[in-house]
Amino acid sequence: MQNSAKGKRFGIIAFITVCLIQFVYTGVVYNPLSVYTGTILAEFPEFTRSQYALCFTMMSFICAIANLFLGKLVALIKSRGVVVLGGTLLVISMFIYANAKSLAMFYIAALIVGIAFAFVASAIGATIINKWFFKHSGTFVGISLLFSGVGGTIFSPVIGSWIESVGWRQSFVIVGIIAAVCTALIGIFFRSDPEALGVKPMFYEETAEAGKEEDAGKNEAIETGMTIKEGVRTFRFWAVILVYLIVAIIVYSIMSIISVYVQDLGYSAAEAGAALAPMNIVNMFMPFVIGFLADHMDTRWVVVGGTALFSVALFILLTGPSLALVYVVAALTGIGMATGRSTLPMVTRQLFGTKDYASFIGVFVGVFSGGIAIGSYVIAAFYDAFGNYASAMYAYIPAAVVAIVLTIIAFRGKRA
Predict the structure, then answer these.
(1) CA torsion angle for 243, 248, 253, 254 (degrees, to 10)?
(2) What's the confidence (pLDDT) of residue 207?
(3) Which CATH class is domain 216-410?
(4) Side-chain half-sphere of 254: how many Cα atoms within 13 Å?
(5) DSSP string across 347-358
(6) What is the rounded CA–CA span in Å between residue 48 and residue 30?
(7) Are 18 and 129 in contact (CB under 8 A)?
(8) Which residues of the chain have pLDDT under 70?
(9) Cα gap 37→373, rounded to integer Å
(10) What does residue 322 show for φ and ψ, rounded to 5 degrees?
(11) CA distance 125 to 146
(12) Smallest Cα–Cα separation from 167: which of 41, 52, 55, 40?
């Protein structure tokens, strides 16, 4: 059966939807939230930095918890309902931020952002792509993730200019309106499932006509797969959790110290900010490269390669690096970030199929988000205890080796 023009049209709309999710919700709304910090603290001198920073910690932890329920929510109200719900919550949170007059109101807004972001982040995007794209899902996930970097790169300075020209409160209102328009467009045009429209996923005919044994096996895996109840009984399920928890903690803790490390070397805040540029640039384009590789080779070797490359940064940090080497560390950290967030959707599909994909990816992204949330605290604890960041590397390097070995052993399975 050939896919209809209707099926292709809605498949393209599904991909545009995922790109919009990344560009608007992640790039425009979520990523630039730290841009407001200095201005808000200036207006509320009674807030300490740690009190306001708790907003971001709360966001990460509540997002991790909410991700655990993503699978059940997708089963209940479908992908479109989840995205519309998440988008609506983001709009509400932006207007709470715009009217916040106390620390409690900022905390409430942050909690709502955390819940919302669980429903409009990479997990739901990967779920949509896996529903609508029978092949090449890694490449399309990678392309969509690129849009979050593009959105953040473009809108972080734009939002900074809005804060200066119209004030931070009005800036939140503008961002809320952008999110509302995006949510409305998705609600009107996007459809959750090709099956409900009576069409096949994109590239289904290409696979069916090829009739290859590998694709036949893959098709079986996609049609059956595992349920989450079956998955939790397997070694590979817990291996995935441990590997991505390790990667999240290590990678994002290194990310958190790059700027302060440069300042500790005696350089200015501007130079410290510039040191993040290699990380942001690499993290913007690597998801596409990683997604393409994951579509054309065993995904576990992509995870191993990316983790091994990032681990070079850990050895560099043992040496007390110069500014030039910190730039290298930043670029390698970008590879680590891209490896973590880009391979997780493909590993989930490869090892567990798509029968209960939303449940698996929700749990795994929840664990990954939890690792991100505690990463900065872990490395700060090492610094407070030993007076340097190199001490953390003596724990991080063996942990990275454990992650690599577990990946090689446990991430065996057909490419999906």
Answers:
(1) 80
(2) 53
(3) mainly alpha
(4) 35
(5) HHHHHH-STTHH
(6) 22
(7) yes
(8) 1-4, 204-224, 269-273, 413-416
(9) 18
(10) -75, 175
(11) 12
(12) 40
Residue 307's φ and ψ, nearest 5 degrees, are -65, -40
User: In whole angstroms, what is the distance from residue 39 CA to residue 42 CA?
Assistant: 5
Is 92:101 a contact under the CB 8 Å cutoff? no
Q: Is the torsion defined by CA of 274, 279, 283, 285 positive or negative?
A: positive
Kindly tell me the sign of the dihedral angle through the C-alpha atoms of 29, 31, 34, 39: negative
Cα torsion 183, 176, 248, 277: sign: positive
From residue 329, alpha-carbon distances to 149, 260, 390 in Å are 19, 13, 13
Class of domain 5-197: mainly alpha
Asked if the domains 5-197 and 216-410 are classified in one and the same CATH topology, the answer is yes
Inter-residue contact 147 to 22 (CB < 8 Å): yes
Q: Which structure tokens are listed for 307?
A: 């983790």
**Residue 37 in tokens:** 């910090």
Centre a 10 Å sphere on the Cβ of residue 22 and count the other Cβ atoms it contains. Answer: 27
CA 56, CA 287: separation in Å to the nearest integer?
Answer: 24
Cβ atoms of residues 185 and 16 within 8 Å: no
Question: Rounded to a whole number, what is the largest CA-CA distance in the chain?
Answer: 67
DSSP 153-171: HHHHHHHHHHHHHH-HHHH
186, two tokens: 């998705």
Check if the beta carbon of residue 124 is closer than 8 Å to that of residue 82: yes
Assigned token pair, 227: 């349920």
Rg (CA), the chain: 21
How far is residue 109's CA from residue 389's CA, in Å, rounded to a whole number?
Answer: 33
Residue 186 to residue 125: CA distance in whole angstroms: 13
Between CA 406 and CA 238 the distance in angstroms is 10
Say which amino acid occupies 69: F
Q: pLDDT at position 369, please?
A: 83
pLDDT value of residue 221: 39
Across the strands, what pairs with 202? 133
DSSP-derived secondary structure letter, 21: I
The residue extents of the domains of the chain are: 5-197, 216-410
Return the percentage of the chain with pLDDT > 70, whole number.
92
